[in-house]
Amino acid sequence: METTTDTSSIHTAMPTLKGKRVFITGGTTGIGRAIANLLGSEGAEIFACGRHQAELIDALESIRSTGALAAGEVADVSKPDDVKRIFKQADQSLGGLDIFINNAGVAGGGVEEEEDESWRYIVETNLLGYIGCAKETINRMKPARKGHIVLIGSMSADLRSGGSSIYAATKSGIQAFAEALRKEVNPEGIKVSLIEPGKTGSDMVEESPSKQRDLIHKHDMLRAEDIAVAVHYMLTQPARCDIVNLQIRPHLQLI
Question: What is the C-alpha separation between 152 and 143, in angstroms, rounded?
């Protein structure tokens, strides 16, 4: 005679993402787009921003193809006026904010190779943009005493290789910001999670698309979708659990 097993004491119940209102910066390409597609396929309503109109249109079509409601706007998060504008537009589109994915970023090199205008833009996008967007998010989540902020960082925060000093500085800043921010807003019911990917295929890396596919096949590079799955894991933990920091590396990336 077959017996059925009650798994309620074995498995942790996973909250659904259906109906969650999600804002993703840099949601038009790479990791941000992969996150938008996955969360949209789970029933979340998506608002995304990116710097280029053509990429935004293409990304929104992709998100909607999952069955999700999706809207978005062109914006540059290095500009405070753009940050305020897109949050107002997200308010109109979503009617509230449950999840914010702080993802928009640009590649950068070392202090010797980057001109003043270039390195300042990297810092203003990768670090100051994160801070500005987080502040706008907290202003919206705090009254409800709930919400989840996910910051997409980088292994560069710890690796700090030569020739990456500007980029590494911004990612180290995000790492410190995430840790301190969590301590500030956890008492308000807001979760803060940081995910630090290793080398991931996207338009930000130097390798060609064909070379990226080869590296992914050899387990020397991650797919953007791998990071999206990790974000999904963070977002579907019960209220009592916080995934504070998650590092993801390609199998053969040993540093």
Answer: 25
Which of 253, 185, 245, 255 lies closest to 220, judged by CA?
253
Does 130 qualify as catalytic in the annotation? Answer: no
What gap in Å lies between CA 105 and CA 76, rounded to an integer?
10
Mean pLDDT by runs of 10 across the 255 residues of the chain is: 63 88 96 97 97 96 95 96 97 97 91 87 95 97 96 87 88 96 97 93 79 88 94 95 94 80
Give the span between the Cα atoms of 154 and 221, in whole angstroms: 14
The CA distances from residue 63 to 179, 202, 233, in Å, are 31, 18, 19
Chain centroid, CA 178 distance in Å: 12
pTM: 0.92
Give the domains, in start order, of the chain with CATH numbers.
Answer: 16-248 (3.40.50.720)
Distance CA 213, CA 208 (A): 9
Which of helix, strand or coil describes residue 178? helix
Q: Is the dihedral of CA 85, 86, 87, 91 positive or negative?
A: positive
